[in-house]
Amino acid sequence: MEQEKYTLPIYNSAGEKVDTVKLDAAVFGGAVNTALIQQAVVAYRANQRKGLAGTKTRGEVSGGGRKPWKQKGTGRARVGSIRSPLWRHGGVIFGPHPRDYSIKLPQKMRVLALKSALSIKLNEDNFIVLDNFKLNNVKTKEAAKIFSNLKIKPEKKVLLLLDRIDGGVQLAARNINTLNVGLVKDTNTYEVMCCHKLVITHEGLIELTKRLK
């Protein structure tokens, strides 16, 4: 049973089984660590934040250097500056300031999280190996037909991992809203977990195994 789990069919663009490939148990045979996946996803999303939101305090707002009126004798409340946070056009109390949201995750943790994410796709039977992804014509219709041949429903989010991406693939795939095309060397836990189906070329699988071993 375990032998069957780590042996997957290889399909061609017509959806026909042309060969089989044995997965490396060192990459796909480990236990799934959901806590580590959660850490990797949180770190990835935090690292995408720019942290540019900023407001000015009363000391940073232009103007307000002169006291509007004398301290006593006017019958009005005492005030030292027209840039008081209580006034219109004044400063902001406890407002946001530019900051760094990035989270550094050790490489070993990132690798283990990615292995766990790949194991989940394998256990769910959502891991598909393709012999290659070549298009005779650079057309979106032809690219979509390949996924239709693989019996992937149009509404399912697909992550296509390649060892290299040429301009023709990018042009043909960019109009498929549910498709995300990525390089094996750059793939991460977040994008693996965000897809319903993971489609990887045979060459890409070899490169991914070398990367994670």
Order of helices and strands: HEEHHHEHEHEHEH
Give the overall shape.
Answer: elongated
Strand content: 5-15%
Q: How many beta-strand segments?
A: 6
- State the helical fraction: 25-40%
Give the strand line-up of the largest sheet: 2-1-3-6-4-5
Number of helices: 8
Overall residue-averaged pLDDT value: 92
Radius of gyration: 27 Å
Tell me about this structure.
With 213 residues, the chain is an alpha/beta fold. Helix content is 34%, strand content 14%. It has eight helices and six strands; from the N terminus they run H-E-E-H-H-H-E-H-E-H-E-H-E-H. The protein has helices spanning 2-5, 25-28, 34-47, 107-123, 140-149, 167-173, 189-194, 202-212, and strands at 7-11, 17-22, 127-130, 158-162, 179-183, 197-201. Strands 2-1-3-6-4-5 form a six-stranded mixed sheet. Helix 3 (34-47) crosses helix 4 and helix 5 (140-149) crosses helix 6. The longest helix is centred in the middle third of the chain and has 17 residues, at 107-123. The protein is elongated, with a radius of gyration of 27 Å. The two termini are 23 Å apart. The model has no long low-confidence stretch (mean pLDDT 92).
